[in-house]
Amino acid sequence: MPKILICDPIDPIGTEKLKSAGFAIEFLKHKETLKEIIKDYDAIIVRGRTKVTREIINSGKNLKLIARAGSGLDNIDLEAAREKGVAVINTPEASADSVAELTIGLMVSLARRIPHADYSMKRGEWLKKELMGFLLKGKKLGLIGLGRIGSRVARIAKAMGMEILVTKRTPPPPELMKSLGAKFLPLDELLRQSDIVSIHVPLTEETKNMINAEKISLMKDGAYLINTSRGEVVDEEALLEALRSGKLGGAALDVYSTEPPKRLELIKQPNVICTPHIGAQTVEAQKEVSKAVAEKIIQFFSNHEACS
Ligand code: NAD
What we know:
16% strand, five-stranded parallel sheet, seven-stranded parallel sheet, 12 strands
């Protein structure tokens, strides 16, 4: 039976599933040994933490499959995997609801300054007058990306009475746009019109630093930015400048160009709300991700055996 190396922790539900299906499972104990020991395995399971580089892929003499338990594939050298004929799978559908709910939570927190309210009460303060918020109902939410997560955010935001604006690489399905009552706009126009912009694109060459100083300058004065996608999609220096100058009213961030962030200037800004990449950190998502990755591996090897 194929041998599988689990490089980052996953919920036991997936490992049990794989064991019951007869797979030999081992766990990576020391990250630095991966390049050396990968030759013994048919598949590896990683989350975002393990960087699957060209060198690692080329060392996998028996490697047939890289399984990403989770969504983004930006920690895997896809080009190297393709060249070597190694398949790559992921489980983006399993955590989409959790990321969408966190995004909405961050948006409400920005509008009503909930973290500030909580922190000040714990210090014994009563800042009722100072903690004036704003209503989300009737505001324009600009979504960059309308895939699994973006479309879920859109549905909840619509139910809250927000107006939905959308930009994405290809025109979105008309039925979805109709059901959301949403407007499809080019990125620059979406940035000009939105009160709040929320990013839901994958990290690619095209989306890296997509929101830079020039794009921020197009945004409404005092607008808000939410990023639960990938840190590198936003130019963090440009964002810091816009928050310091008051160009932007605030930002909510779950993801950072370096994780954990080494420089704290950005997250320490009073108008920034930050969370430590917890978009998919729900009990349900973690179980679902683990179960889905196991099912996809079992499916992959049963197809693989049938073909060989
Ligand atoms: P998806 O593939 O379903 O949707 C991506 C959307 O981005 C699509 O609408 C696509 O058209 C659009 N897009 C891609 N490139 C674009 C471009 N250059 N310009 C405009 N639009 C573009 O992905 P998803 O499942 O919704 O996830 C989105 C991202 O969220 C993931 O790639 C991942 O990086 C991130 N994510 C974060 C967490 C977290 O814990 N914070 C968890 C899961 C996923």
